[in-house]
Structure formats: C-alpha cells, structure tokens
Amino acid sequence: MIDKTPGKVHDATVTSTVSGLDETFEVQYYLPKNYSDLYKHKVIITFDSQDFFKYGQIERQYEKLYEVGEIERCIIVGIPYPSVEWRNRYFSPNGDKHKQFVQFVATDFINWVDKNFATLRTGTARLLFGESLAGSMAYSVALQYPTTFSQAAAFSPFVDDAFIEKFEAQPMLINLNLYHTIGLEEEDFTTIMGNQADFLTPNRALNDYLSGEGCEYEYVEMDGGHIWKTWKPEISTILQYYFE
C-alpha cells in the first residue's frame, strides 16, 4: 500500500523485470503539501535521491517556488544509492549493471510512478536530475529513451570519450532539453573513491559538442568544486527552467 501522506519523504521498493536484473530496489518519493490525485503532476526524478533531499533540500526549494506561483505542480521521486560501490556499478556509464539499470528506470520504475500517482505521462513532463555519476545516469536514460524522458539536468557529470560518443550516436538528440553545470574548481580534486580527477576538461569537451547540435541546451560554469555547496543553489534555477 502506497502512503500518500503529503509533505514528507517516503520510502518504497520497486522490483525489476529486466532480464539479468532480477532485483528489488529501494526508491523514495515526496508528495507536495497540496498533493491531490485530482490534479495531474509533472515528475522530477532524482538519482542519488537521499542526497538531493538531505543536502540539496530539493523538496523545500520546490515548496518555496510553488508557494509564490513560480513552478507547476510536481512530485519528486528518486533512487538512492546504498553504497559507493553500488553507485559505480549501476550509475556509472562504465558500470557492469548500468545498461540494465537504464532499462529498469525507463520501464519498471516509471511505470510504478505513473501507476501510483497522478502524473502527466509525456517526456516533456518529466525531468531526470543527478549529480556526478548520478548526473551521468540522468543523461544516459535520456539518451537511450529521448521521447520518454526528453529533459535531463546534470551537475558535474562524469564524462569520458566513450560517454561523448553516446551523444554522437543518438540521432534523436534534437528531442532533448539538457541542462549541464560544472564547477571551475573541478580540474583537480579527490573523488569519494579517493582518486584524483579532472571533471572540468571532459565536461567542457561535452559542451563543445552539444553546443553545435540542435537540441535545447543550457551550459553553466560555476564557482566552486565537486560538492553540494556548489550545486544546491542551482536547484531552484533548474526547477524554474523546466517547470516555470
């Protein structure tokens, strides 16, 4: 039984039917304070959802925007990560479970969302949202299913040559509306895995490619590093960008 108490973050589970991914995954969802099944809602889908709620306070930012009439009705759903190792296997474009997990999001997960809540079921009514590897995950789903999910925002996504090639291979890139940020201090930093990394250079390479394509595309270089202190202030801007 789905708990539809508004104004709080709920936990639930969704079971995969994807071949080779016979697992049950933890999910989270937030129904706004004025939620009612009488109204259709747009859907914000977050990867690393526990961080979006804890550090980004995305539900509070949404409520403030809605209260002053600057955003449409939305629900927030998401998939948390149980461990850093899990995140590398499922969210990373190079992870051994990534391909199947993208399919899970586009089938079992979104079907669960639409079955249980009053939602608008079009690509332009859904936003995929993530940071770091979760941002790469958001872009991966949009690239694979550009009509089901035509909007994706990524804070400081992991990018390599193979990931850029996925954009180059997508003939329906014009259907997408992408928002892309990177911190100016991300040229040399330590990841949560303890490795030194340069995210700024490959993200600029991705920007160079996407800027010449026909898709709707917003690119922002921000002061700051690969941390929520940098990303959090940009959440309201992105919600307004897609749902104002």
From TrEMBL:
This is Enterochelin esterase. It comes from Aliicoccus persicus. It comes from the Bacteria. InterPro entries: AB_hydrolase_fold (IPR029058), Esterase-like (IPR000801), Mycobacterial_A85_antigen (IPR050583).
